[in-house]
């Protein structure tokens, strides 16, 4: 578990910076989140979820609809469908599990940091009628004393930031 967590921390940091770099944000713009640091500014939690077989999945809830309060969540799901994301144009859409893949969800703090350019994803987990489902969620974000606010270069010079600092 400790080795998995170390790999996930590095992966989460790399993914965050790839996303921020795509917006033109550099490490100088967010001093607390340096890619070259030992990541002591970050904290993580590992959440293991088990959803047993359910004969009437439409009458049960796996995990209620929510967004994650993190920067990013990296999710492993076994080869059993259950994760759904909400799309304004389609409603609830099942995320098919692909063997050997990970799902990356943008969390509320990254939504704020990017001034809404990366959207926090509303998602839920459904139970399955024929197979048990297992998921491993790596929830990753800053220490609680770090102030998160929209990156100044992502805010229009004529408008206020879309989100307040938290």
From TrEMBL:
Per UniProt, what is one Pfam family of this protein? 2OG-FeII_Oxy
Q: Which domain of life is it from?
A: Eukaryota
Q: Which InterPro entries match?
A: IPNS-like_FE2OG_OXY, IPNS-like_sf, Iron_ascorbate_oxido_reductase, Oxoglu/Fe-dep_dioxygenase_dom
PROSITE patterns referenced in this protein's UniProt entry, alphabetically: FE2OG_OXY
- List each copy of the Fe2OG dioxygenase domain by range: 38-142
Question: Quick one: signal sequence residues?
Answer: none
What PANTHER family has UniProt attached to this entry?
A: 2-OXOGLUTARATE (2OG) AND FE(II)-DEPENDENT OXYGENASE SUPERFAMILY PROTEIN-RELATED
The protein here is known as: GA4
**Which species is listed as the source?**
Brassica rapa subsp. pekinensis (Chinese cabbage)
